[in-house]
Amino acid sequence: MRCVTGLAVLFACVSASITVAQTPETLYSWDDHTTQGWVVWGARDAQASTLPNVKWNLASISGASGDLVVTEVGNGSFGSYAGGQLWIFDGFDRARANWGGVKGNLDVTGLNTIEMDIKHNSPTATVNVNFILSAWQGDPNIGGIAQTFTSGPYAITNTMSTISVPINGLPSRFRGNIANVIVVPDEHLAAGNLTWTMSAVRSVGTPLAYRDIVTNDAGTPDEGIDGAFPLNTADMLAIVGNPGSVSQVGLSRNPAGSGSLQWTDKGGTGDVGSESGASIGWGNGAGWRTAVPGDPSDGNGYYERMSDFSNYDRMTVRISAQDLVNPSGSVAIGGVFIQDEANSLGTTLPNLNLTTDGQYHDLVFDLSSVSFLKTLQHWGIDVAPHPNNIVFNIDNIRLWNSTVPAGVPGDYNGNGVVDAADYVLWRNGGALQNEGVTPGSNTPEDYTYWRSRFGATSGSGATLAAAVPEPSSLMLFVLTLCGSWWNRCPRRPNATTRLN
Fold this sequence. Notes:
With about 500 residues, this protein is mainly β. It is built from 6 helices and 24 strands.
């Protein structure tokens, strides 16, 4: 097997796949006493010219206390106003991405909420704060479109408050492509300069028993091949059709079934001049390419964030290998996990043998030897050299926890019972747990399966269709439920806009 610890860095040219669900976690806590890339924009920055009617402030920013502290200092210089507006944001960065440049996007697909704990120091003032998320559609280096989602205003005082921003209604591409977390205090001229303290930013949701990190399904955000790339330069030549350039040439999307990533791997010894055995990887970054998703000729941008796979101890790769010369043979497949490719820190899991009969097989890798699942940069597979050309198809890669009891089939939100809430999640196109049809998808067949299981719990029988409400009464229940919830919630702006 080719060593994957001496990896050529391809981060400048490839994009990464959107995952089905991210692990809820603390995104920022500033325990290291740095700003972790957070910055503040005010009168001296570009925002002053793009929004000329706003009265801007100036401020310093520090993480030295263990919180993020923004101290306003506007006094008329540089056109600043005491109590003017600020933009406080995470600087296109995340705490665990530790090398220079734009690192990429936060993936919160499948989660419910982003929270921030925040207060200011005035004993009397209440200041409204808006929370903005921005996401890229396209490559920002060559002219992409930024989308924004604004939630608020939230009334903040000198008591630590938690802003809870609902995100499960955002489009899946947006949730997988969040480039910025932005906090915008409104103008507070009467209160004058304030000091803002933020103690944590969290993503919130129910951890899943499994997480599909590669799907290749038609219509999914990764569009089949967006996230896939060769893990080192030698592997490019092992892919039939790739001339050895940093690209996805030779990779394609096979539309058969639910879709798969396909390539033909050259037969050979694996030595120079006889390349064989590609290493194919993925990463948690922008789930876009450019104008034509899935087109290898359409350029790539790779802005990754570290992934957190610490909830899981197993990885299942659903893969087929077809060797027309030797269909009863086998090829060795290893699992690859990379913490930091710039410093060549990686782990290759022991080989598993895959039959070359052209049929899909599930290879289950034990992740217990991977010590850095909390801070993971890349993951993938490594194909051992083989004598004949082999056509590979990867249908799905799933992470799961062998210690978590199996869920209730049809219980799409994981609350232990198949009920109307599961229908609401399916209807809204959400990520489904405990699917019994096509895992990692949301299809009309999932409705039929939910209906057949309605009322089931962990101890109930396989089919309880008689308990399901008729569609008309079910819809009335859902509409009543949603209407009641909506009437209790404050109205929030929820607009998607283009930024120039």
